[in-house]
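Supplementary material to the annual report.
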Amino acid sequence: MRILGLSALYHDAAAAIVVDGDIVAAAQEERFTRKKHDKSIPINAVNYCLTEAKLNKEDVDLVVYYDNPVLTLDRYLNNILMSGKDSKEVIERNFESMFSQKLWVNKEIDILLGENPKRKCMVCEHHMSHAASAFYPSPYEKAIILTVDGVGEWATTTIGVGDGKNIEIKEEIRFPHSLGLLYSAFTYFCGFKVNSGDYKFMGLAPYGEPIYEQLIKKELMDIKEDGSFRLNMDYFDYQNGRTMTNEKFACLFGGPKREPETEITKREMDIAASAQKVVEEVLVKLVKHAKQEYGQKIDNLVMAGGVALNCVANGKILNSNIFKNLWIQPAAGDAGGALGCALYATYIYAGSKRIINVNDSQKGSYLGPKYSNDEIRQWLNERAYQYEYYEEKDIYTKIAECLAQQKVIGLFQGRMEFGPRALGNRSIIADARSEEMQTKLNLKIKYRESFRPFAPSVLYEDVQNYFELNIESPYMLVVENVITERRIDQNVKKELKKYHDNMLEIVKKKRSDIPAVTHVDYSARIQTVTKERNPYYYKLISEFKRITGSSVIVNTSFNVRGEPIVCSLKDAYECFMRTEMDVLVLENCILYKEDQPIYKENQDWMNQYELD
Amino acid sequence: MAYKNNFEKEKLYQWACDNDDFREVLKDKNVDSYFEIKDHENYLREYKIENAKDVRLLVEELCNTNRRYEDIKKVITVAALKNRVEQNNREVGNDEYQEALPTFIYNF
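Predicted assembly:
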């Protein structure tokens, strides 16, 4: 059965096509429209998925939308009631999208694919979509499933059990009590963008001290021993459709919210450290409760939902050893819901056989478009862009040599990643040993001043030579420390004082012999690379190791700040030419900046992308 | 564009004001857990809203979950029908409600 899954109308619209249980393709709409977190009906992603599956629109048997509009309408109306005389903004903010697109989502699908009486349209509950995205592609026959996000219909957190083809959700926490919304509230209060700024907020935590932890637990939320919680809504305003937090919240933290792009003070660092600690505590308690209540004989935990992208918390869950094994859906946010709902219908409605792959069925999350060498050469020739073509036996050595010469390389090969992380196919790569690389990448390529380090890609067989990690982390969803032997002693607190809380000064300090990927607390967001999952990337890093002795490189997403990760050859070439990247690799073609024709910019690209 | 819904919005607001006692308060902290048990297992359902009859059925279903919705049954029905997505006046990608994502609040 050919099943198309869709997520749309909230944020991170995406499409996924599953044919008889095989995940054929999945992609986020933002990559095609170049609009970050695009929520519109994913026409481009759908067209791509159908092309990849060699299907016409009329060949689709079933379309599944990742959210149940009736339940969402119920929440919308309930929210209006809860807001009472304060409900004007709630009504205004969502009325049109609720009564038009969401309620008539089947008509939107008819417009997208054309009317077809043979095709069915189904809706799957939001958290079941997340749960399915976590369980079905995982390498486990049985697993405990934890989903945590902002909100989907009513649920904000669920605990379930997956067994073979079946998933049963056992317990849930409901709106407005939400760990995702709590984290978003802090993100907003500290001057970062809700949704896209959560990562920065998490990266800020190691600079601070968790001095507000008890205050958060005393005033903002009540956490039970089983990890369930309720928020004190006196401090939040999202229920009324206005902003995430209110004046009372500001008073609690000593003054108004930080305005975006202004100086980050010790207060924000301490809030980040405190919020992160509380989130970790809740998650570990939830996991412990799930194990005790439903998983006495189950060794596996799977996770999805936006909060599952908190890789620092994931590291804590891993190190708690409550479960032996952990698998997290790489597209853990709403985009992954498109895949989850399609998989749920595959097994529950279509009754397909579930075949478990020991390495998982996510295919490395390389589920997006790719270009052949022929297509690339034709594209480059048509534009008279200069390049050198290398045979398979030479290409990896050539790229590795460039890396060793401290070049910054845009790497565009294979199928585009599904999910927010670049995993070596749409990545900017560099030498992790360089002291200057972090600053160079930030200021000359990404055009940002960041207090966050970059993430490392490391050969799986060498991971323990660098990091305190003893499992595979193919999707860059776990944070662990650099091993002690490689660290250089630094006292963050003292340094902060010395530099008057200027993080940009202390982030430049060398903290290990792989400084470009070592955070101030010695942590790193690790991607392990194996030959099986990504042969091209594996061979490249192996060559770098042969030349330099190091099997770690910097891997950051191929984009500039605020831009979605590059999807097409055009996106890649534009990003290459607009920045101070030295080399662009398109499969077996290498382009050197100095050989390129003068690049004429026909738009104000610096303002093209809203800052995240 | 949105002015066409002003009457229904006003009715919803009036309804919210009339039911102001509904506001949720923090539950008794003496409970051991804030987990709620899922009350159904029907996570996947066919979804086909085509006409006024379908909308009425949907609204009936909704009213079964909360009796207070009875007061605004007609408002919900009219709002849904007024905002029906029509193939002949819409093109994919031409999304009249595709405003920029808000940066200050989670979009739910």
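The longest strand of chain A covers residues 142-152.
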